[in-house]
Amino acid sequence: MATSSLLLPRVESLSSSGIQSIPREYIRPHEELTSISNIFEEEKKVEGPQVPTIDLEGIESEDRVVREKCREELVKAAKEWGVMHLVNHGIPDDLIDRVKKAGKAFFDLPIEEKEKYANDQASGNVQGYGSKLANNASGQLEWEDYFFHLIFPEDKRDNSVWPKTPSDYTEVTSEYSRLLRSLATKVLSVLSLGLGLEEGRLEKEVGGLEELLLQMKINYYPKCPQPELALGVEAHTDVSALTFILHNMVPGLQLFHEGKWITAKCVPNSIIMHIGDTVEILSNRKYKSILHRGLVNKEKVRISWAVFCEPPKEKIILKPLAEVVTEAEPPLFPPRTFAQHIEHKLFRKTQHALLPGKAG
Question: Which residues of the chain are modeled with pLDDT < 50?
Answer without folding.
Answer: 1-6, 356-360
